[in-house]
């Protein structure tokens, strides 16, 4: 989405997962924001999976999840299918 495999960002005290992604969205072109957020700019798209330190992070929890400097927040598209 951003043309990079990873990005390091400074996390301010009390910053949540949503706030970090909004910060990153401000650093990239408009298409990045549209790939992550719904039109309200706060809700994540349903076809996007978030993980925090390799554990799935529920979309509704992201607004209240405070990050630490060592945390790894990852975004993945949800792939259809199954077996």
Explain the overall architecture.
The protein is of the alpha+beta class and 83 residues long. The protein has one domain. Helices cover 27% and strands 16% of the residues. The chain has 3 helices and 3 strands. It has helices spanning 17-27, 30-36, 59-62, and strands at residues 48-52, 55-57, 73-77. Strands 2-1-3 form a 3-stranded antiparallel sheet. A hairpin with a 2-residue loop joins β1 and β2 (55-57). α1 packs antiparallel against α2 (30-36).
Q: Rg to the nearest angstrom?
A: 13 Å
Largest sheet, order of strands side by side? 2-1-3
Q: Overall 3D geometry? A: globular
* Count of spatially separate domains: 1
Could you tell me how far the N terminus lies from the C terminus, measured between alpha carbons in angstroms? 28 Å
**Unreliable stretches covering 5 or more consecutive residues:** none
Major β-sheet, in short?
3 strands, antiparallel
**pLDDT average, as an integer?**
84
User: How many distinct beta strands?
Assistant: 3
Instruction: State the helix count.
Output: 3
Helix-strand pattern, N to C?
HHEEHE
Helix content: 25-40%
> Strand pairing plus helix content: what structural class?
alpha+beta
Q: What is the strand content?
A: 15-25%
What keyword list fits this structure?
single chain; 83 residues; alpha+beta; 3-stranded antiparallel beta sheet; 3 helices; globular
Summarize the structure.
The protein has about 80 residues and is an alpha+beta fold.
Q: How do the helices and strands line up, and which of them pair or pack?
A:
Blueprint: H1 17-27, H2 30-36, E1 48-52, E2 55-57, H3 59-62, E3 73-77
Antiparallel strand pairs: 1-2, 1-3
Helix pairs in contact: 1-2
